[in-house]
Amino acid sequence: MKITKVTMYEIKPRWIFARVSTDEGIEGWGEMISGTKTETVMAGAKELAERIIGRDPFEIERIWQELHRSFFRGGPINGTIISGLEMALWDIKGKAFGVPVYELLGGAARDRIKVYSWIGGDRPSDVGEGALDRLNKGFTAVKMNATDELHYVDSYEKVQAVVDRVASIRETCGDKMAIGVDFHGRVHKPMAKVLAKALEPYHLMFIEEPVLPENWEAFEQIAREVAIPIATGERLYTRWEFKRLFQQGCVDIVQPDVAMCGGILETRKICAMAEAYDMAAAPHAPYGPIALAATLQVDACTPNVFIQEQSLGIHYNQGFDLLDFIKNKDIFAYEDGYVQLPTKPGLGLDMDIDKIEEISAEGLHWTNPSWKNYDGTIAEW
Fold first, then answer.
1. At 321, is the pLDDT very low, low, confident or very high (cuts 50, 70, 90)?
2. 319: pLDDT strictly greater than 80
3. What are phi and psi for residue 179, nearest 5 degrees?
4. Cα separation of 53 and 173, whole Å?
5. For residues 207 and 200, what is the distance between their CA atoms, to the nearest angstrom?
6. Active-site residue 68, yes or no?
7. Choosing a second label site near 365 at 20 to 30 A (CA), which of 103, 170, 248, 328?
């Protein structure tokens, strides 16, 4: 079997799909993250795709090593391109052997996968009612963004607003609902300590990205001062960038993104490294249907994954949602806060190619929000 073609699709609201074709008629699908550099990713993907034409799609590790080990390596552009191509190769291999991808990675380590749901949006509000709605739908875990703009040192009024929102979830749902609070790297170290300490009485499931990953040294101080588990990792690429977290020993939950960190096998390797340090994993997955399907394959065979992010109905999905581009919509059917293990070959998706081609023809332009603090300085989004 040989790779004959790679076709790229820009898909609203903020996804990039890759379709890898072979001379035996088997096709694999992957997903890349557009971020704010859609055309850059598209151009880079076409360039790297040329290097795999004519190659054996089963040689996933060899191809991955060749694509990754350029003189200048890593970063979000290369990371997401390699990730998308890699998951498409796994899709091909699973289909060729007639098994889900996780069967090629050691087989199932669990019976089902627990998922959590997003509430509150970018500027969180009404999270109490949102959490109650999810509880009534069977979810037992939710995640919310903590704050909107926050300066290096800001008012306690903003801290109290976060506390009040978390308290409203406890008031509507009691202790039945596990709560993750995503600081989103919006909070700088001086306020991260204050905010984490103020949230400690509410027994959170975790705080996510309490500081930006480049300020990794602050994890130690936060971990020393509060008992809330710390989660991070969505902006890190490959196992080499995760090494520092393992060596530091302050982060409790790693969150590699299968569409960013290097793909399915790289995510599995990162989670295995975390397992050796007695750390949990909760993979990052707020994007499209292919990335989520690929992540579920990792979850199925990875024992230290304890919960999975999923993006049905997330506030970014304006105009289209995950189910709009797949025919077998039951693959993301959640029951009592769980999703069943995939059973179909490869990633388990039956893609709606007509819909994909229709929407891709419209093009894609998506940018992160641009925020400023009260004094006009740039705020992290």
1. confident
2. no
3. -125, 125
4. 53
5. 10
6. no
7. 328
**pLDDT for the residue numbered 185:** 95
203 a catalytic residue: no
Nearest to 364 by CA among 41, 21, 15: 15
- Closest to 282 in 3D by CA, of 236, 232, 243: 232
> Tokens in use for 313?
């109905």
Please state, in angstroms and rounded to a whole number, the distance separating the CA atoms of residues 87 and 265: 9
**Read out DSSP for 42-84?**
HHHHHHHHTTTTTS-TT-HHHHHHHHH-SSS--HHHHHHHHHH
Query: Which residues have a Cβ under 8 Å from the Cβ of 190 and sit 6 or more positions away?
Result: 152, 153
Which strands make up the sheet holding 3-11, listed edge to edge? Answer: 3-11, 15-22, 27-33
Catalytic residue among 68, 203, 284, 315: 284
Closest CA relative to residue 214, chosen from 186, 190, 191, 235: 235
**The residue to which tokens 């379709």 are assigned:** 19
Max intra-chain CA distance, the chain: 62
Q: Which two tokens stand for residue 107?
A: 């087989």
Residue 224 makes CB contacts below 8 A (sequence gap 6+) with none
Kindly state the DSSP code that residue 139 receives in the 8-state scheme: -
Length of the chain: 381
Do residues 296 and 342 touch, judged by C-beta distance below 8 A? yes
44-63 mean pLDDT? 98
Catalytic residue among 68, 151, 184, 315: 184
Q: Is the pLDDT of residue 374 over 90?
A: yes
Calpha distance 280→278 (Å, rounded): 7
DSSP state of 133: H
Q: In 67-205, which ranges are E strands?
A: 112-118, 141-145, 178-182
Least confident of 53-62, 92-101, 365-374: 365-374
Q: Which pLDDT score is estimated for 215?
A: 96
311: its two tokens = 């993006």
* pTM to 2 decimal places: 0.96
The residues pairing with 11 across neighbouring beta strands, listed in sequence order, are 15
Nearest Cα neighbor of 14 from 288, 355, 315, 260 is: 288
**Degrees (nearest 5) of the Cα angle 310, 312, 316?**
100
Amino acid at 326: I
β strands within 105-199, DSSP E: 112-118, 141-145, 178-182
